[in-house]
Amino acid sequence: MTRLAAILMTTLLATPAFAESKISFLVAQRGDPFQDLIVTAVSGAAQSDPTLSVSVENADKDPARQIALGQAAIAAKAAALMIIPVSTESAAILAEAAGKAGVPLVFVNNRPQIGPSGGKAVFVSSNDLVAGRVQMRLIVDKLGGQGTVAILRGTDTETASVERTAGGKEILASSPGITLVSEASANWKRQEAQEQVAAWLKGGRKIDAIAANNDEMALGAIAAIKAAGLSGRILVGGVDATKEGVAAVGSGDMLLSVYQDARMQGSQALADAGKLSKGEYVQRYDWVPFELVIAENAQHYSTR
């Protein structure tokens, strides 16, 4: 062996070989502002870790498509799955399939109610009951414990919508002076929320405050309120503290939002998926805390 060959061989032996873990990230809907923040965080974290590679797949809010994407990833021997589930049904089917195949699974943001799936499924999200409670508690306080409230729900098959609504109703149950006069699903969408609130107002419904399960629907409600000439007369609360939501809180159009750290959820979910792919321990519920956003601190959250 020549001296050069010996040096090259020594260098190769001394260089650590990284076995790249291929992780498949199934997103419920690209184009959703909050989910896009999570995707950006995951992509950024993956770039800084040479042991991980991530492919992002868009289910486009179609449960059947998400199931097919997940089954394809499992068949391709993905080291782990990360999923923002479209529905509890798609989550349950993929949890069972991943469990049988021994593929670790991390649910992100939307926490479906499913079984243990072989003990390999973990959940990275914020506690949505807390978001609903925090939001409604401030609304009740601002109304002085007297008045009428309407609720705009997200998609009824998603845990985030169910629990945010339930958390709000817990506060209403202990507030005898507040009446829930209307509630409807607007599927997380601004336009649907605007149309729903416009219909409520056109029908003569007396509403003092609207609690929306996310900022997009809150912004739709605000648009309907302004169109009806009722600016400043109906309180509106959102959740997620998106860029537009925080701006609306800062301007006074929105009473509050509840900051859900999308970036932390994304980076933590990838970290958990990476550990699981290597056989390391990860706690089953990895909570990311909520934070209240009001006019006084909106500037701080506008840059987060």
For the secondary structure, the number of strands is 12
Helix share bin: 40-55%
The CATH topology label of the largest domain is Rossmann fold
* Overall radius of gyration: 22 Å
CATH architecture descriptor of the largest domain: 3-Layer(aba) Sandwich
Question: Which blocks of ≥5 consecutive residues have pLDDT under 50?
Answer: 1-18
- Share in β-strands: 15-25%
What's the domain count? Answer: 2
Question: Main sheet: which strands, in order across?
Answer: 2-1-3-4-5-11
Q: In the CATH hierarchy, what is the class of the largest domain?
A: Alpha Beta
The major beta sheet can be summarized as: 6 strands, parallel
SSE arrangement, N to C: HEHEHEHEEHEHEHEHEHEHEEH
| Coarse shape | elongated
The CATH superfamily label of the largest domain reads Response regulator
State the end-to-end CA separation.
58 Å
- Secondary-structure class: alpha/beta
The total count of helices amounts to: 11
Task: Compute the average pLDDT.
Answer: 91
